[in-house]
Automatic annotation (TrEMBL):
The lineage of its organism: Bacteria, Bacillati, Actinomycetota, Actinomycetes, Propionibacteriales. This is Peptide/nickel transport system substrate-binding protein. It comes from Actinopolymorpha pittospori. Residues 33-62 are annotated as: Disordered. PANTHER family: OLIGOPEPTIDE ABC TRANSPORTER, PERIPLASMIC OLIGOPEPTIDE-BINDING PROTEIN (PTHR30290:SF62), PERIPLASMIC BINDING COMPONENT OF ABC TRANSPORTER (PTHR30290). SUPFAM superfamilies: Periplasmic binding protein-like II.
Amino acid sequence: MDSSEPTVTRRKLLRFGGAASFVIMTSSGCSLLSTDPDTDGREGAGPQQTSGDPGAKEAPSLAEQVKAGRLPPLAQRMPKSPLVVQPIEKVGNYGGTWQTCVGNPDASFLFMNLGYDGLVRWSRDWSKVEPNLAESWDAGGDGRQYTFHIRPGVKWSDGQECTADDIVFAYDDVLRNEELFPTLPEWLTAGGRPATVEKVDSHTVRFTFAEPKGLFLQYLASSSGNVLTALPRHYFQQFHKKYAPDAEAKAKEKGHNGWADGLLAMGGAGMTDIAWWQNPAIPTIAAWKTSQPLGGGLRLTVDRNPYYWKTDPDGRQLPYIDHVRVQVIQDPQVAVLRSSQGQFSLTPDEFAAIRDKPVLAAGREDGGYRFIDMPQSNMNSATFVFNLAHRDPKVRQVFQNKDFRIGLSYAINRQEIINTVLQRQGEPWQTSPLRQSKFFDEKLAKQYTEYDVAKANEHLDRAGYTQRDGAGFRLRPDGERLAFTVQVRLGTIPIWVDTAELVRGYWQHVGVDARVQTGNSELVIQRVEANQHDVVMDDGYPGLDDVLLDPAWYVPYQTGCQWAVPWGTWYVSAGRQGEEPPPRMRRQMELYDEIKKTLEPARQEELFKQLLRIAQEEFYLIGTAMPVGGYSVVQNTFRNVPKSLLSSTTYPSPGWSNPEQYYIEPR
């Protein structure tokens, strides 16, 4: 979770990599997994009611409501200049239900699938920021000022027009209200000061920063920016004490601690908080809106937004699909079974583990589905994140010893992990951004990855841990056993437990008493927040060019960096809180400050490579193996889905592919 996103506890802006997206890194490349189909198989399972009328400009269900007088005509619901979406394959037809599933109710999954509609958005090739709700923008003041021109005539799903007032409300009255969010997201600050947001006119809003903000548009196009377009003022002001004098009393009547808790409970933290999706009354500008919340059940349903403001090239209102049903399935094997029976339109890669691909491949013809690639922006499959700012000075001294970390790295038999856990996919890897990234660093990727017990013992001895107890474990200078616990979050990445157990054995073999403790994500997050952890396991997200926006594995630039919580707090608070980091880390922070002020991409790249060089020399974290490519199962009748669907939260997946243009072919 990025510190710029109010998720998990809503008020706590904590990054916890891997928790926001459901990703299992898998790949082809081994004969066992060579499962390319000869044909697409049959048309798919489960009848779908769709409309093949190529001349219809709106869904039949909406046309019926217009005819009955329950809905204004299409021309009155659309802006004069709707955003035109190019289909990935071809113009589709209306109707049907997109069936999908998820392991646990997760707002980020829902947002990335169903709600990616901010002021701006990423292009499909991730090369640039494009217009969305804002049809254009101007940058001025040497990168200090950004003025957005909102598309006139765009309406919320209840028919009220979306204006600059809504953006100003989301920023000034929600994000900047300390009773709601004590800390403003870093991407909305510069020089330690918050941006100012002003309404220029009803369709123009201006952001002004104290210093140049070179990455602002990229942040705005990512998951971070969703909150600015998810909080219609005319709805949420009834829960805000500034606009409703009785908001405090009404909130307490409903069992909340006060108006702030009441507003958040109604969805006031935006689409990356589950409360937003649990409230069908919230108007939205997204393609679908909640009609059946989870409640006590295991299914969430969203229906088409009759006021959605995008069309296909033929001027036909999107989305094509009427409904989306998200089923919560906590047993992965149940999900895989149902997927193999063709019960889901698009199965998340959460339920597409590498070990299941041969079984799913065998069922493609009967199940009526195909595979698509699902590569992901992770730089590792399992990273061991040592708490270098541990609250115990003696443990901190151990973890900060570079020879200690090098010795542990040499002790890991990465090829055995690849062979046994990753089904012979991948290669030994530390923590460099991936080869596809312009920030790839060969040395950061490969240093200390060879399996060499002699070198491991040499570096551990050099670190000063030569004495051993009767059981053969090394001793610290104070006579205590050299021991620590690795926290592994359950229900996140299935390979983590197996990987952690193997690595525990490798480290014990060289005299380090590593232990593995599993727990749910919430518990581990709480320990990290309190700086009460030794080592945690993570997937190293992100690992492509998005590291420029989220460099948490290379420099602790935010409060939730698992390997340096008090140092990240020091940086975010401009030295007012936390602990001052070591000199070389402070230099990295200075470099990142300069990057954020820089407008030229080439200069940003140059500076970031300097930052990475320090991370390589300091060797903060220990990686195991490069992540291997994932996949997803897609019904043959479910169309306009790209053949390769990069999975990322910075580049919200599959939102970047415009799910509103997905359609279901009639049987």
